[in-house]
Amino acid sequence: MHGFTKAPTVLPSAVEAIGETKMVELSRITRGLEGRILAKLEFLNPGLSKKDRIARQIIEDAEADGSLQPGQTVVELTSGNTGTGLAIVCAVKGYPFVAVMSKGNSRERAAMMGALGAEVVLVEQGLDSVPGRVSGHDLERVEAAARQITAERRAFRADQFKLMGGMRAHYLHTGPEAIRQSEGALEVFCDFAGTGGSFAGCAAAFKEYNPRIQCYLIEPAGAEALSGGDTSRPGHRIQGGGYSMPSLPFLRPGDIDGFLTVTDEESMAVARRLAKEEGLFAGFSSGANVAVALRLLQTTCRGKTVFVLLNDSGLKYLSTDLWDYGSPAR
Predict the structure, then answer these.
(1) What is the CATH number of the domain that holds 312?
(2) Is 127 helix (H, G, I), strand (E, B) or coil?
(3) Regarding beta strands 23-25 and 36-41, do their DSSP bridges make them parallel or antiparallel, or are they unpaired?
(4) Active site residue 51
(5) Which of 75, 87, 117, 121 is nearest to 101 (CA)?
(6) Which residue among 6, 40, 50, 51 is the active-site one?
(7) Contact (Cβ atoms closer than 8 angstroms) between residue 19 and residue 53
(8) Which structural domain, as residue segments, surrounds residue 279?
């Protein structure tokens, strides 16, 4: 029997491989600091990001309530990660999928969605926008295109900003996984705001388990609409969030213990440190999460255990200045 004492578990499809990602302690990047950072490796999902979780939850919720019919087309706007997750889930379940994305997002994401069978519609950025930096105005253009395609094709809109699957995936799964894997040791959680789903779901699960767990929402410096702060610099580099949207429906004020900001430069520097020091190849928002976690350990949360998500793979940003070693932000 080839030396096996127990038959390995064989999953029926890639959909069932979503979730139950590993957790690691970032003991090298925190050397010399009091406290710990525990990171959940969401880039180990089949689509290389945490968004696989919400893709599965949104589609399965819609199947359960009848809002998605067999063979119906699915449409959603995306910066690339939700689209990749939906491409995987729709491929396995037999739904045509149309991903609508700004040209400002990295081209690796569009290529990956196309390889997974999605129809990818790329929307031009606004005249004042910078390639690689998707603003709230750019997102409005993508939203308009997604609505038009949904109406024309009588499609199901897998709306990650509104459908509760975007929060439920993390409330039902990610948060409880983190509690179990850490053996209940979590004391602080900080998370970069995209749709707000991973923060909302995890924070709700954490607060139910232990109301003393502190939960902080992270925004890009200069795109601080959720906290009512500075919104003068919406064209940041941290793809997948910080669109200067004034409200996100998943967020419950009672679960937010504070708002924190992070710069492009901090996010990029820490993402590079994660790769070189921890062997964890992740993207901009993962760097943002760990940068803020490091700051917390150095200030108000000395000696505590901070939990973060490493949201997606650095492979999705090879064409960006995150991995351009001639970049002055290195």
Answers:
(1) 3.40.50.1100
(2) coil
(3) antiparallel
(4) yes
(5) 121
(6) 51
(7) yes
(8) 14-49+168-323
